[in-house]
Automatic annotation (TrEMBL):
Protein name: NAD(P)/FAD-dependent oxidoreductase
Keyword Oxidoreductase: yes
Amine oxidase domain: residues covered: 14-450
UniProt feature coiled coil, ranges: none
Domain of life: Bacteria
Keyword Oxidoreductase on entry: yes
Short name of one Pfam family: Amino_oxidase
Annotated organism of origin: Nocardioides panacihumi
Key words of the record: Oxidoreductase
Matching Gene3D superfamilies: FAD/NAD(P)-binding domain
Cofactor: FAD
Protein family per UniProt: Belongs to the flavin monoamine oxidase family.
Length: 456
């Protein structure tokens, strides 16, 4: 049995940041990762048309974008010597409303004056609520109890009788962020999503929130961290049992055991439930994780011979609260002459296409892209769907959130250290909640606490 200062379970960005900070401060740290790769929800895959290598391209099947408020991520990107490039956004965007025909626009959505005024009013209210919230302690918001007792959809409808305005605002937080229908999470959870990005206005501004990408893919961040950690990272080490006390813990991987003074469980709260603990986690800790669930989104990418939409003066950005693909963007890698689109099919629509055959799903998704960009969109050279929901070590996308009332009841518990154990992932972050920036912040915070020796 090897003996360490700290064992980190999970080599996603949270775990690797924690380990990198601890190792840099001279601590003996071991990272145990169940998969045969690092990065967790960040992954770049190479795909080609009919497996022909000369048509191959790299696709980011997990997280990819960086926004200007994500200073922890931008700082780490810099520290690791990586570089970013902006998302292509020149030209008109498209909006597909209930009529099902695309309308070009720049700036504000091309909706009626009444709908635009209703969206502006809801935005103002949500900005006000987000401004009152410390995203790392959302349960302390002055109206937390009420906001957590009502679904976001019901909250919107209480304030606004313009259905298209409600549908758009619901889309920004539901399908586009928490990837759950707006009736399935609380208004408090929605305000947290906004506060974690600085404001609701930031959250809905695609040019802000989806600003830049990293050369070589966002997965370069965990790969670079793992390179620096070297043989402190052990792959194919699926932790099945943790025996713990106040003094330390023994971690089991198959018939191997590893001992440490502290163990950091850097896995999503829902995935903590795969691990057995001895003694069992206290009831409140187990219940808190029972009230968490992953959202579901299918990320779809299509590569074409050229970015044909640009020739029509289109940016590649499109929104459609009633479309199967509710949002779509130009995803062409820097310097590539081909054209790439990325779109998202979320929550109930994702359930529905998940039941279809792969061929039918592809046809329906490409038909939705064709609604935005015309018939050419139906014929990509390469078509790639991300599938996180069938992966036991993740279980959905993008992240986890609470059911109604869960945030006030159990939010604080998810981050509470317990004896020799610490818990964290982007799903429990304040700033950068559900994003890579949040993962880094959580990793930094846990490592900082362990380095300072401030541990209950
Ligand atoms: P994870 O990445 O989930 O890491 C947890 C790790 O623990 C995994 O490697 C897992 O294999 C391992 N593990 C689990 N159980 C065990 C065990 N028992 N033993 C050992 N190891 C274990 N974020 C952005 O900032 N920008 C985006 O554009 C963006 N888009 C996204 C698109 C998609 C499709 C997805 C899925 C996510 C996206 N995200 C985005 C979110 C972002 O990827 C995540 O928030 C972040 O990567 C989570 O990092 P983490 O380390 O907290 O968790």
């Amino acid at each position: 049995m090897t003996n360490h200062d700290v064992i980190v379970v999970g080599a996603g960005v949270t775990g690797l940041t924690t380990a990198y900070r601890l190792a840099s401060a001279g601590h003996d740290v071991l990272v145990l990762e169940a998969r045969d790769r690092v990065g967790g929800r960040l992954l770049t895959e190479r795909h080609a048309q009919h497996d022909e290598a000369d048509s191959s391209a790299d696709f980011e099947v997990g997280g990819q974008w960086v926004s200007p408020d994500q200073t922890a991520l931008l700082g780490l990107v810099d520290e690791l010597g990586l570089e970013t490039f902006p998302r292509y956004r020149s030209g008109d965007s498209l909006y597909v409303g209930r009529a099902g025909t695309p309308m070009r626009f720049t700036g504000d959505l091309p909706v009626s004056e009444t709908t635009a005024a209703a969206i502006a009013q809801l935005t103002k209210t949500l900005d006000g609520l987000a401004g009152e919230m410390d995203p790392s302690r959302p349960w302390e918001h002055p109206d937390a109890t009420h906001l957590d007792s009502v679904s976001f959809r019901a909250w919107l409808e209480e304030r606004c009788d313009d259905v298209e305005a409600c549908d758009n605002v619901a889309m920004y937080v539901g399908p586009a962020m928490l990837t759950k229908p707006a009736h399935a999470f609380s208004a408090l959870q929605a305000v947290l999503m906004a506060a974690s990005a600085g404001s609701f206005t930031n959250l809905v501004d695609a040019d802000f929130i989806l600003d830049r990408r990293v050369h070589g893919g966002l997965a370069s961040v965990p790969r670079a961290l793992a390179d620096r950690l070297g043989d402190r990272v052990r792959l194919e080490a699926d932790v099945s049992l943790v025996e713990w006390s106040d003094e330390g813990a023994v971690v089991h991987v198959g018939d191997q055991t590893f001992k440490a003074r502290h163990v950091v469980l850097a896995v999503p709260p829902t995935v903590v439930r795969r691990i057995r603990f001895s003694p069992e986690l206290p009831a409140e800790h187990r219940m808190a994780r029972e009230h968490q669930s992953f959202g579901l989104v299918v990320k779809v990418q299509a590569a074409y011979a050229s970015p044909f939409w640009r020739e029509q003066g289109l940016s590649g950005t499109g929104f459609g609260p009633y479309e199967l693909v509710h949002e779509v963007y130009d995803n062409t890698p820097d310097g590539d002459e081909r054209g790439f689109l990325v779109g998202f099919v979320s929550d109930i629509n994702a359930d529905e296409v998940g039941r279809a055959s792969a061929q039918e799903r592809r046809e329906r998704i490409l038909a939705s892209l064709a609604t935005y960009f015309g018939e050419q969109a139906r014929e990509p050279l390469v078509y790639v769907e991300s599938d996180w929901q069938h992966q036991e070590l993740t279980g959905g996308a993008y992240g986890t959130s609470f059911d109604l009332g869960g945030l006030t009841r159990y939010g604080a518990v998810l981050r509470e250290p317990l004896g020799a154990l610490d818990f964290g992932s982007s799903d429990v972050a304040g700033l950068g909640f559900q994003h890579v920036d949040g993962a880094i912040r959580v990793g930094d915070e846990i490592a900082g606490r362990l380095i300072e020796g401030v541990h209950p």
